[in-house]
Design brief:
Layout: H1 16-25, H2 29-41, H3 48-61, H4 65-78, H5 82-94, H6 102-125, H7 131-148, H8 151-155, H9 160-165
């Protein structure tokens, strides 16, 4: 009986997210960043928002908050999706969890409020067809204020129907 031979095949993973997660798990920080940059330039990229999210999570895991913030801003230049506004505001708000200084914690909440304001302004400028997005963004903002800040700041912006729920 003949022994089976093992053959090594080199495979290419077309999914840049899994490739980059592998690189980051190997502590190849600069290489991972370079692969993310290459993936963004790929014309075959079918779900760029997942790649951006993974890249941002990678930078956060590296404690590179300014790089993460820059990624959010770059993505907002390309798309204005509701989930992106919420994710960015949450990133800013929850950055304060690791902050010790009270003044810095206030700055984190202020930055999150600024993101919510910008998102609200964008959806307001889009007209009545974005009414649901505005309401969802306001609900998320109210939830953040319930945890960290000033609920009254958001209540004035809520539609009467939403005010009754809270």
């Amino acid at each position: 009986m003949k022994k089976p031979t093992l053959t090594r095949h080199r495979t290419f993973d077309p999914n840049p997210v899994s490739t980059n997660k592998l690189q980051s798990s190997l502590a190849e920080t600069e290489r991972t960043r370079a692969l993310f940059a290459l993936a963004f330039d790929s014309p075959a990229l079918d779900m760029p928002h997942l790649l951006w999210k993974t890249y941002s999570e990678f930078e956060i895991s590296e404690a590179e908050y300014e790089r993460s913030k820059a990624l959010y801003e770059m993505l907002l230049e390309r798309t204005k999706r509701l989930k992106l506004w919420i994710s960015y505001a949450q990133f800013e708000a929850f950055a304060m969890i690791k902050v010790v200084d009270l003044a810095d914690k206030r700055k984190c909440v202020e930055r999150a409020r600024d993101v919510f304001e910008r998102g609200l302004s964008y959806f307001r400028s889009c007209g009545p067809e974005m009414k649901e997005e505005r309401a969802t963004l306001l609900e998320e903002w109210l939830e953040m204020e319930n945890r960290f800040g000033d609920v009254e700041l958001v209540r004035g912006k809520l539609a009467p129907k939403l005010k009754k729920r809270n």
